[in-house]
Amino acid sequence: MKTGYIYDESYFWHDTGSGTLYLPSGGYLETDVFSEHPLTKKRVNNLLERCGLMWELERIRPRMATREQIELFHLPEYVDKVKHLSDTTGGDAGDHAIVGKGSYEIALLSAGGALTAVDSVMNKVVDNAYALTRPPGHHAEADIGIGFCLFNNVVIAAKYAKEKYGLKKIMILDWDVHHGNGTEKAFYHDPEVLFFSVHQDLSFPPDTGYVTHVGEGAGSGYNVNIPLPPGTGDAGYLKTFTSIIRPIVEEFKPELIIVSAGQDPSAFDPLGRMLVSANGFGKMTKVIKDLANKYCEGKLVMCHEGGYSNAYVPFCTLRIIEELCEKTTDVEDPFSAGSNGYPDKVYSNQREAIDSVIEIQSKYWNNLKAPTC
């Protein structure tokens, strides 16, 4: 497979300031590495170069999204706010969405990375693409930035794909540990975009991501929330992919697949409580890649979202990219022993969560079989 790899040095220069976990430092909060720190993504690049896989990829330079493209989703007054903060003092664009000096232009380039990825696969420059986008996007709503996200890269990319290429069936999968609220809102009434969010139940943002939120009007059934209990590991995620995502996708038959790839469901993430291993991310990628190969000529775009373990995110992302390009490096997961504290199996609470989704979504999808008592 020919895999595109998209990034720009500017992504690492987006400055969210100093902080402690996800809060600004000060008072009794001593300055630490702020969670949305460039090191998590910078070290992805470092590992790709160190192991040699970087040179097996088609490196593609992102272009900057235009304001018109950003406004395919975001309201003009919100875009003005981000630009004003970027040009002046910096500040919060909403709810924990920090804008630093020059962040506006970097955010345009981040959204542009997603657009560049779409063009690259649609025009068959590459088979699939991984965009190391920063700042991330999936929490951002039309009028507000949320959770480190300024512009919603994946939403803008999907709307762009619909407009430029006339696509009528786009699938978006968000496996970030936090619910993809911004993406959900963008397409909640749209039957042309099938959205899956696989996330930790009752995490972030508050009061979103419920299994009963299935879309409205013509979009009913095209919004599939899969809230999984804390502690879900590889087996639970793969069961989700094979029992829910794959049968729905086989019925929907997308023309393009976009993934919001947040590596924060990992076992070592400070802002999540899941137990996915690096190999687990590779296996999840294989399921989605196989679906892309079967239904949309391999057209698969992945955009980096969350992931806050500087140590582990690079190894998780490496496994994803290895699977995309079908090349294996000699890199072993150095932390695999630390993620084996409990048997990796589908526990009863995870099965109940999966069955709950199937029961609700089987009203909309013939390929799903409602669980029997």
How would you summarize this macromolecular structure in one to three sentences?
The chain is an alpha/beta fold and 373 residues long. Helices cover 36% and strands 14% of the residues. It has helices at residues 38-51, 67-70, 76-87, 103-122, 153-165, 181-186, 234-252, 278-295, 313-325, 348-361; strands at residues 3-6, 19-20, 23-24, 58-60, 91-92, 94-95, 98-99, 128-131, 145-146, 170-174, 193-200, 223-228, 256-261, 300-304.
Describe this structure in words.
This protein is α/β, with parallel strands linked by helices. The chain has one domain: Histone deacetylase domain (Arginase, Chain A, 3-Layer(aba) Sandwich), CATH 3.40.800.20. Helix content is 36%, strand content 14%. The strands form four sheets. The chain has an eight-stranded parallel β-sheet with strand order 4-1-8-14-13-10-11-12, sandwiched between helices. A two-stranded antiparallel sheet has the order 2-3. A two-stranded antiparallel sheet has the order 5-7. Helix 8 links the parallel strand 13 and strand 14. Helix 7 packs parallel to helix 8 and helix 7 packs parallel to helix 10. The radius of gyration is 19 Å and the shape is globular. The model has no long low-confidence stretch (mean pLDDT 96).
